[in-house]
């Protein structure tokens, strides 16, 4: 079935909600448009179906149960929305944090000769200023552990 720009107005036309000028315009259009004729026929069929069924009154107990059920569905959908929103926010924070770290300069830590000697317990590779204290540390450590 072809789509027509007047189809969106047919429900209001069917329900008598259009101004007289727009109503006349829609009526003229429906005379020449098959898609709108079919849609209007379907609206009339559904309307007649609803009119043929009796309207039943809900007891206050059934109405309360229906209201509670709708309320519980609303609560669950709000909770689901909140969970999704928290997940999205966490993802955005994580991505932003990682992106920000990408451009950060790396911090360079260089150990002095004494620190290298203390960690490695080997005086090799030390500059002359650190050689003497490093050797003294090694000797001091060695003598404590000697039998």
Structural description of this entry:
The chain is built from 6 helices and no strands. It is elongated and about 110 Å long. Helix 1 runs parallel beside helix 3 and helix 5 runs parallel beside helix 6. The longest helix has 43 residues. By secondary structure, it is an all-alpha fold.
What's the total count of β strands? 0
Beta content comes to under 5%
The helical percent reads over 70%
| Assembly state | single chain
Secondary-structure element pattern, one letter each: HHHHHH
Instruction: Note the gap between the termini.
Output: 101 Å
Tags for this model:
single chain
Quickly describe the structure.
The protein is an all-alpha fold. The chain has helices at 7-14, 20-30, 34-52, 60-102, 113-120, 128-145.
Layout: helices, strands, pairs:
Layout: H1 7-14, H2 20-30, H3 34-52, H4 60-102, H5 113-120, H6 128-145
């Amino acid at each position: 079935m072809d789509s027509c720009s007047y189809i969106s107005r047919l429900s209001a036309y069917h329900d008598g909600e259009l101004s007289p000028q727009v109503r006349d315009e829609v009526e003229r259009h429906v005379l020449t448009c098959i898609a709108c004729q079919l849609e209007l026929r379907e609206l009339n069929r559904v309307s007649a179906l609803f009119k043929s069924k009796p309207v039943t009154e809900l007891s206050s107990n059934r109405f309360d149960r229906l209201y509670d059920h709708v309320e519980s569905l609303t609560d669950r959908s709000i909770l689901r929305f909140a969970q999704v929103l928290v997940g999205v926010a966490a993802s955005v924070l994580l991505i932003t944090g990682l992106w920000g770290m990408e451009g950060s300069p790396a911090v360079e830590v260089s150990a002095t000769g004494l620190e290298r000697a203390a960690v490695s317990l080997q005086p090799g590779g030390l500059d002359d200023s650190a050689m003497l204290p490093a050797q003294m540390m090694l000797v001091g450590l060695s003598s404590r552990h000697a039998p």
